[in-house]
Write a structure and sequence with these properties.
Oligomer: single chain
Number of helices: 4
Number of strands: 52
Radius of gyration: 25 Å
Distance between the termini: 35 Å
Largest sheet: 5 strands, mixed
């Protein structure tokens, strides 16, 4: 199934996403986008940072009503073929988008390869014949070279896959090839650099052991991410756990385990390196490093005969607001020494001319989704009676930088349209807005999950609010029962319904119902909760004109339908009146989820990450695993902070659902800062383990 590609993958996404639409935001409309005769529905798309419209009669693998943007969705790595076409791996939707030489602006890719593994798609490289090598999950997949007629969605299977326990692969990230076709793979989780024999004419599943492995305490590798080669085949590895670039000699005839010290190391306070991601080397030997935490690209001079630690100031630094870089990840340098940077946060591929340095804008060759709409991380969506579109934008929900807010677009808006109003600023008290709803008078209700500290609230803003406005009402406090909300809706009497769930699939999962005009620290008038409800991991909620309650439950892969509230109050442990579900609704047993205790000290142990036990694509726990002893005798506060940043970013990248990320990330950071917890908590299903 995994290798079925293209349209089957899209069909599966449509099926599995049916219960998650409300989590990401969906709203039906007759007037939005000016479609008075044909009803449409709108979907907030985190990957494209846009609102997309589809016909209400859509079914199957259909295109949106208007052209899609660039297709860039959390781009990670990129490469180029001999014709100058750019190949970009997209973590959010598991695709490779291919742009023609000279593409810029919001140009669409001329071809897209659906790799099928959103969240695990990393490095990419091309051989001299144009075959495409992609780090994908715990494998390296090889796709055929493009043909002249390769356009649109390429429903292709890999021609070869490096896979299996013999490969040693655990979480491959960077990929490079030398002139003989040997494959170099940086594996973040294995803490190793693997080298494999050239593909040649071999096809199918290749369970090859590496011909050489750079790993061990002498190598200083902790969390290698990117890999590059110079013209002499010297090996350059960016290691974001070590905040360093390690340079190793060309492989030559060396084979087997190579626990050898690097010939040179770029590291130290003068280098500016903190969280190193992508790396490239130009034809003159200059070294380019994307630093994700610094939102910068550092350039270092050729190493030449230098050895040991090179704590040197970069020869050039591309950094600052004008660059447009927020989270630079992968990069490559073309034959003219132009610098191409994939930005995970900005959903862009920026191009900087050769010799660039300072706070400079990228060239006109930059590819990126248009920015006038202002959206960064769209979540909830709603329409008022006039068809105006309201979108909750929550950067912190995905670990993104940016200001939270609610963006309002005029009815009929389309394309690169600026909002007609933005509710944002300190007076709004917004920090992490996720769900939104409007009453019949167009008063706006915003469910805000809070950020730091976690203080969930429901804000109410008067109709036609704009700017840095104070809410007219705020539901917040211990009496409200709000803990981890994820959706909001109103009934015809303006009673307020809020989903509250941390994914534990127990009594903490509930729908809280507040009386109309509630304000302050008020208790709900009713709570839908308990085993009979079937609720496990609800993400979205809506009510129809009869006030029937529809709850999309992603963990249970179901939509539960409950009768109208009527005059009911108190705890409602009632079975749904109807269930829309597949063959096996319900959440798997959560007790299998276990923590591995973290070391109490970060001074001798480097910690790596993995996610385990997903309940229907929702994170139930996050398991850091102890790695080999670090080469550092002590870790400075800066390195400790870098680990926190690294874990937070990787947890976010690994998880599809942001509320689960926030729970996981909070637990991980709490454990990193205070050591293993001695007492149970809701996010640790087995605190004694």
């Amino acid at each position: 199934m995994r290798r079925s590609g293209g349209k089957i993958r899209a069909a599966l996404i449509a099926l599995l996403s049916a219960t998650a639409f409300l989590d990401f935001g969906l709203h039906g409309s007759r007037s939005a986008y000016g479609l008075d005769s044909i009803p449409s529905f709108l979907v907030t798309d985190r990957c494209s940072e846009a609102v997309t419209a589809y016909s209400a009669v859509s079914n199957g693998d259909v295109s949106p009503l208007f052209p899609v943007p660039t297709g860039l969705s959390e781009p990670q790595f990129l490469a180029s073929d001999k014709n100058g076409n750019a190949y970009v791996t997209n973590s959010c939707n598991g695709t490779i988008t291919i742009f023609g030489n000279g593409s810029n602006g919001s140009a669409a890719p001329f071809a897209t390869i659906a790799v099928n593994n959103a969240g695990t798609l990393n490095g990419i490289a091309l051989d001299d014949n144009g075959k495409i090598y992609v780090a994908d999950g715990a494998e390296v997949s090889v796709y055929p070279a493009l043909k002249k007629k390769s356009v649109g969605l390429l429903n292709e299977t890999p021609i070869a896959v490096l896979t299996g326990s013999n490969t040693g692969l655990q979480e491959p990230t960077g990929v490079a090839l030398d002139s003989s076709g040997r494959i170099y793979v940086a594996d973040f989780m294995a803490g190793s650099l693997f080298v494999y024999a050239a593909l040649g004419k071999r096809r199918g599943l290749l369970k090859d052991a590496p011909i050489a492995t750079i790993a061990g305490s002498n190598t200083n590798l902790i969390a290698p991410w990117g890999v590059a080669l110079d013209s002499s085949r010297n090996i350059y590895v960016s290691d974001n756990g070590a905040s360093s670039v390690f340079i190793y000699p060309a492989l030559g005839k060396d084979h087997g385990p190579l626990n050898e010290a690097p010939t040179a190391t770029i590291s130290g306070s003068d280098t500016g390196l903190e969280i190193t991601w992508g790396i490239a080397v130009d034809t003159n030997g200059n070294i380019y490093v994307a630093d994700w935490n610094q939102s910068s690209v550092f350039v270092y001079p050729p190493v030449a005969s230098s050895t040991g630690q090179l704590n040197e100031v970069p020869s050039a630094t591309i950094s600052g607001a004008n660059t447009g870089m927020i989270g630079p990840d992968g990069l490559f340098v073309d034959s003219s020494s132009n610098i191409h940077v994939a930005d995970f946060y900005a959903d862009s591929v920026s191009v900087f001319p050769a010799g660039s340095s300072g706070n400079i804008p990228p060239s006109s060759g930059t590819i990126g989704t248009t920015t006038a709409i202002g959206l960064n991380s769209p979540r909830g969506i709603a329409l008022d009676p006039s068809g105006n579109i309201y979108v909750a934008d929550c950067p912190v929900c995905y670990g993104y930088p940016g200001n939270p807010g609610v963006f309002v677009y005029s009815a009929g808006s389309n394309g690169n349209t600026a909002p007609s109003a933005i509710i944002s600023g300190p007076n709004t008290d917004l920090s992490a807005p996720e769900g939104i709803a409007l009453d019949s008078s167009s008063n706006l209700y915003v469910m805000d999950v809070g950020s730091s500290p976690i203080t969930p609230k429901v804000f109410v803003y008067p109709a036609r609010s704009n700017g840095n406005v104070v809410p007219s009402a705020t539901i917040s406090g211990t009496s409200t029962g709000l803990e981890d909300p994820s959706g909001i809706a109103l009934d015809s009497n303006n009673n307020i319904y809020v989903i509250d769930s941390d994914g534990a699939c127990d009594s903490t999962v509930k729908v809280l119902i507040y009386a109309a005009k509630s304000d302050g620290d008020v208790a709900p008038i009713a709570t839908l909760s308990g085993r009979s409800t079937g609720l496990c991991g609800p993400t979205g909620i809506a009510l129809d004109s009869s006030d029937k309650i529809y709850v999309a439950d992603n963990a249970a892969q179901s939509v539960f339908i409950y009768p109208p509230l009527g005059g009911s109050t108190g705890l409602l442990n009632e079975a749904p009146s109807a269930i829309i579900a597949g063959a096996a609704p319900g959440c798997p047993n959560l007790t299998a989820s276990r923590w591995i205790p973290l070391p109490t000290s970060m001074s001798r142990t480097a910690v790596k990450w993995s996610t385990i036990y997903l309940c229907r694509e929702e994170c139930l726990s996050f398991r850091p695993a102890a790695a080999a002893t670090s080469h550092r005798s002590e870790q400075s506060p800066v390195h400790r902070r870098n680990w926190l940043i690294l874990f937070s970013s990787l947890c976010r990248r690994a998880l599809s659902y942001p509320r689960r990320f926030q729970s996981c990330s909070r637990s991980v950071q709490r454990r990193l800062t205070s050591g293993p917890s001695r007492s149970g908590n809701r996010h640790d299903p087995n605190p004694s383990s």
